[in-house]
Amino acid sequence: MAAPLMEKLSESLGSPEPAVRLILSVLVGYPCALLYRRFFFHQAPTVIHLYHAISGLSLAAFNFGTQLYHSALCVLVQFLMMRLMGRTITTVLASFMFQMAYLLSGYYYTATEEYDIKWTMPQCVLALKLIGLSFDYYDGGQEPSKLNEEQKRSALAKVPSLLEVIGFSYFYGGFLVGPQFTLRSYQRLVKGELTDCPGQPPNSVIPAMKRFSLGLLCLVIYAIFSPHYPDSYYLTDEYDAQPFWYRCVFILLWAKVILYKYVSCWVIAEGVCILSGLGYNGLGQNGEYQWDACANMKVWTFETTPLFTGTIASFNINTNAWVARHVFKRLKFLGNKLLSQVTALAFLAIWHGTHSGYLLCFSMEFIIVNVERQAQALVRDSPLLTRLANSSFYPLIYLVQQFIHWLFMGYPLVPFCLFTYDKWLRVYSSIYFCGHIFFFTLYLGIPYLRKVLVPRKERSEKKED
Fold first, then answer.
1. Residue 1 pLDDT greater than 60, yes or no
2. Is residue 205 domain-shared with residue 111, that is, in the same domain?
3. Contact 186/76 with Cβ under 8 angstroms?
4. Which residues are registered as beta bridge partners of 315?
5. Distances from the Cα of 283 to the Cαs of 148, 287, 444, 458, in angstroms?
6. In terms of pTM, does the model score above 0.90?
7. Are residues 206 and 176 in the same domain?
8. Is 184 exposed, middle or buried (0-12, 13-18, 19+ CB in 10 A)?
9. Last residue of some domain: 178, 193, 208?
């Protein structure tokens, strides 16, 4: 009965049925969180784990049918590895290899030339969650003096039960689209510790509704404008026939619209986490309670920053934090920050999928971020550029910055969304690889600009540092 109903609903909305099922499932998280607050907050941990497991598995079945066995198998294997192999580096490596191999196999066998909502979508979220779980279990057996503060907060004192791992994995606020959170945070939620009212459900309804409203606004913006900026337009003769400036502006506007697809889902899901209490983050510096522990987006920063690094830092925050914690920082033994950064970005590219577009996207991110840092250092060290940046011309500079920023934010998103070599190469050829030329020119030119714009004294001090 549900299938014909969903078909009619998707037809009336003009959206694919899997997308309608997904957004409905994210929204269902709100009544699930309300039920938890009303009936399960004071229950025993076993009852709460059961509730989270049943509700999450139901959402998985609603979206992917019998294919939910993929996630269930990975959860079971992860639990058995921790139980049978113990707190060893072998457990961590085995978990990493198994979860990533299973995910990549799923990508390979279900791959198409377009973005599809299928079981691999929540699987990529789950893979990080389970790999992180093995790291946290391993850290729990280490000497506290060997761990940083972040690792101490996440480390597990003992192996969790199977029911606990299932509840953690299928928690309705994070199973489908994230955010990432640790088992320790989930354990605190189950114990009723994540609240501003000890012993009572948190006063988080209003903060949750604020995120829900913002997420809904982003979803409406995406629904209105996305039909006017489809990915398929890039591959038409009409796009090729447009003037160069039009093709570039289309990329800019398309990028702004396409990202709202992710922003809306993450912000709505964050509201679910806040409502349940998982988003509780203690008292802030101003003495007010914070609810941003599961924030995956800083929407205001995302919209207003003129910096590439600012956009990256405000987008998919918890996934980036996971990669920083479990990949970048754990590669400290390499003794090379740049190599650690390259490895972390390569991991992100592979985690997203097997298409060449992902690798190109994250390689461009590496180039753009490093060129921007060099440019910021140049402005900071040059008295002339510093005065100009702080002058009355700044509003004009800001507008130019934003145009360049969003044009070249859209540039690496083209291969990210078009996936395959033949498609993204056609688009890049039509705009003459302007992004590559722009950033490689800056990369080669900034050292010469430093010689002209930075006083000799400043340059020598920089070398000594």
1. no
2. no
3. no
4. 297
5. 22, 6, 46, 42
6. yes
7. no
8. middle
9. 193
Reading the block at residue 436, the tokens are: 């590559």
The yes-or-no answer on residue 352 being catalytic is yes
Which position has the token pair 């540092």? 465
The closest of 157, 182, 165 to 76, measured between CA atoms, is: 165
- Taking phi over 0 as left and psi of -120 to 50 as alpha, with beta for the rest, 355 belongs to beta
Residues 6+ apart with CB under 8 A from 37: 201, 275, 276, 277
Token pair recorded at residue 239: 């796009």
DSSP H helices in 177-243? 183-190, 205-225, 237-241
Straight-line distance from the first to the last Cα atom of the chain, in angstroms, rounded to the nearest whole number: 70
Q: What confidence score (pLDDT) does residue 462 get?
A: 56
8 Å CB contact between 331 and 323: no
CA 36 to CA 31: how far, in whole Å? 9
Is there a single domain that holds both residue 36 and residue 162?
Answer: yes
Place of tokens 């996934």: 319
Catalytic residue among 296, 316, 318, 320: 316
Segments forming the whole domain that contains residue 211: 199-292
159, 46 contact by CB (below 8 A): no
For residues 226 and 139, the answer to whether their CB atoms sit within 8 Å is no
Q: Tell me the C-alpha distance between 355 and 357, whole Å.
A: 5
List Cβ neighbours of 309 (8 Å cut-off, separation of 6 or more).
369, 372, 373
51 and 186 fall within a common domain: yes
Which residue is listed with tokens 């409905």?
Answer: 24
Contact 9, 20 (CB under 8 A): yes
d(CA 29, CA 99): 26
What's the rounded Cα separation, in Å, for the pair 430 and 246? 11
**Mean pLDDT computed over every residue of the chain:** 93
DSSP conformation class of 214: H
Enumerate helices (H) and strands (E) in the chain, giving the number of each: 22, 0
Tokens of 462: 């920089």
Inter-residue contact 362 to 319 (CB < 8 Å): no
Residue-wise pLDDT tens digits, 170-219: 999 999 998 999 999 999 999 999 999 999 999 999 999 999 999 999 99
> Can you spell out the DSSP letters for 119-135?
THHHHHHHHHHHHHHHH
Which residues does residue 283 pair with via DSSP β-bridges, in sequence order? 289
Domain end residue (candidates: 292, 327, 348)? 292
CA atoms within 13 A on the CB side of 272: 29
Q: Locate tokens 């457990």: which residue? A: 91
Tell me if 386 is assigned to some domain: no
Instruction: Give dist(CA 120, CA 249) in Å, integer.
Output: 33
